[in-house]
Design brief:
29% helix; single chain; alpha/beta
Length: 433
């Protein structure tokens, strides 16, 4: 296939989070400065260190309308399908064979498997084993492709908490190579006993809602949900249609351009199975490679959406990585941590945080990071707190960040690191009125 020239733009967003089913409740919740982390009711927490999680509320009664087999889908599959449908709402029909699905994830149908095993353990006389088919990690992506009739490549990444951001990189590579015309990129995970108990056993959870970059932070808070981005070449937005139906370029985009995906970078700490590299080198390499892939420099970055789990080791390592990349300016760049609002979605966290990053760029403001207490003097970030922080105007040429670029980072067990660079669509509007 013929390689495609950029830029590659985000034309659709979909979300399911603890704030609700949709992008609108997500953005409203993020802007509020409050947290959606609360009491867990999905399953008993027993003697765990925490009894909190960012749990998705029950779906609206009409959410599964028109979705074949909705009731048989796992929670993670439902999150993925609902977010994908929202991201494509109002869009023209997709070129089935030229549309790819690129997902990151960690749990898929694990919750449903646990429910079956619990029934068997308690000696239930009849147990429906059908939910076990939701177990494979690629199920959410496969459900989206199947229910939306997408015959392009379907790829699921499993690199722990870096998976969602790595999926962005795979999608960008496929778009640049001309392997796909459109990419649905994201991830979906649901809460389950395995991960909840596992992170409690590791003693990396906070009994209270997580507090990234705060002096008294004590650990992470788990969450669930899905985030989907529709990404395609700008040329296709200006001239919609499949290869065989290409029209002359339109003077105006026929779909909204939400942001530009400029670049993605990856690295490995090569250090420890669960602990991050203390000096932050792995985090720095992923960020530097993302900036290089985007063709921009550190001074072009207007804000950071940090991995920000709230664990003492993770935040400290990430901060040292930022200090390596941005130098003295690291403490001047506005920083937010979406996980303080919606919890840690593990393999899907990078996808939903990418959605949050695009929403910030689109609104021209950075959402605040919930949590009380002073900033840790060992991680002296310019943490956005209490209320949204307005970004400098693109017309303000005295601004040090006129391009309004954002970096979203994701780091996972095994030392997997990934970073993505997004740019506000307002520059495209200046250049292509």
């Amino acid at each position: 296939m013929t390689s495609k020239a950029g830029p590659f733009v985000v034309t659709g967003l979909g979300a399911v989070s603890a704030w609700g089913w949709g992008v609108a409740p997500l953005w409203q919740g993020l802007r509020s400065g409050r947290t959606a982390i609360g009491p867990l009711s999905r399953f008993p927490a027993g003697e765990q260190r925490t009894h909190l999680a960012a749990q998705v509320p029950d779906a609206p009664s009409d959410r599964g309308t028109g979705v074949h087999g909705w009731r048989a889908l796992s929670l993670a599959d439902r999150f993925a399908v609902a977010a994908a449908r929202e991201a494509l709402e109002g869009a023209p029909p997709l070129p089935s064979e030229a549309t790819g699905v690129f997902f990151g994830g960690s749990t898929a149908g694990m919750f449903e498997t646990e429910e079956v095993l619990d029934l068997l353990r308690r000696g239930a006389p009849e147990v429906d084993l059908a939910p076990l088919t939701a177990q494979p990690l690629d199920n959410p992506a496969a459900a989206v492709a199947r229910l939306l009739d997408l015959a392009g490549p379907v790829v699921t990444v499993s690199s722990a908490c870096a998976s969602g951001t790595q999926a962005l990189g795979l999608a960008l590579d496929a778009l640049r190579a001309g392997e796909v015309e459109v990419a649905l990129v994201g991830g979906a995970d649901s809460l389950c006993r395995l991960t909840y108990s596992g992170f409690n056993a590791l003693r990396v959870v906070d009994p209270d809602p997580c507090r990234p970059y705060r002096d008294q932070r004590a650990g992470m808070s788990l969450g669930e949900g899905a985030g989907i981005l529709v990404i395609e070449p700008l040329g296709r937005v200006l001239a919609p249609g499949s290869r065989s139906e290409r029209a002359e370029p339109s003077p105006r985009p026929l779909r909204p351009i939400r942001a530009v995906l400029r670049g993605v970078g990856n690295s490995c700490d090569a250090h420890h199975m669960t602990a991050p590299r203390p000096d932050g080198l792995g985090a720095a390499l992923a960020t530097e490679r993302a900036l290089a892939d985007a063709g921009v420099g550190p001074d072009d970055v207007a804000f950071l959406n940090a991995h920000g789990t709230g664990t003492p080791l993770n935040d400290a390592s990430e901060w040292r990585g930022f200090a390596r990349v941005f130098g003295e300016r690291a403490g001047q760049i506005p920083l937010t941590a979406t996980k303080a609002s919606i919890g840690h979605l593990l393999g899907s966290s990078g996808a939903l945080e990418a959605v949050a990053t695009v929403l910030c760029l689109e609104a021209g403001e950075v959402h605040p990071t919930p949590g009380a207490g002073p900033i840790d003097p060992e991680t002296p970030a310019r943490l956005v707190r209490d209320r949204p922080l307005a970004l400098p105007s693109l017309t303000d040429r005295s601004s040090s960040s006129p391009r309004r670029l954002a970096v979203s980072t994701s780091f996972g067990f095994g030392g997997a690191n990934a970073a993505a660079v997004f740019e506000s669509a307002s520059r495209l509007r200046e250049e292509r009125p």
